[in-house]
Amino acid sequence: MASINLIEAFQEFKDAENIDRPTLMKVVEDVFKTLLRKKYGSDDNFDVIVNAEKGDLEILRHRMIVEDGEVQDPLAEIAYTDAIKIEPDFEVGEELFEEIDLFDFGRRAILAAKQTLASRISDLKKNLLVKKYEDRIGELISAEVYQAWKKKPC
Questions:
Q1: Model confidence over 25-44: pLDDT tens digits?
Q2: What are φ and ψ of residue 131, in 5° steps?
Q3: Helices 21-40 and 107-133: crossing angle, nearest 10°?
């Protein structure tokens, strides 16, 4: 299982950024789906599973097993001889589920995913801030401002 310890990351964002776990899990799933689209051209035959309780991330690819030489779409189908190399008891017509290792994406793709994740989380924070204060537009606020000197106690 391609596992990343995400529990601390989820807890940090939940506490510091006020982003709930389901939203963060959806963002992580979307980022990895984007990564899959860039590498394979489509994310239709992939499932991204983010388990916030365990801190696991799994990417599963499912393809239909077809007769040798009849593979028309390599993203959706796999030849029988290739399938039995993975598991010897497969038969034609069955669906093959295989786990994609995160290291298969490469260092650059993972760094791009990290930047995309940071960007999406920044956008979420901005949207939360806008929602928090959008009903206060036009409201007058008065306050007293005091200057605090660095070297003098207040």
A1: 788 888 888 888 888 888 88
A2: -65, -35
A3: 140
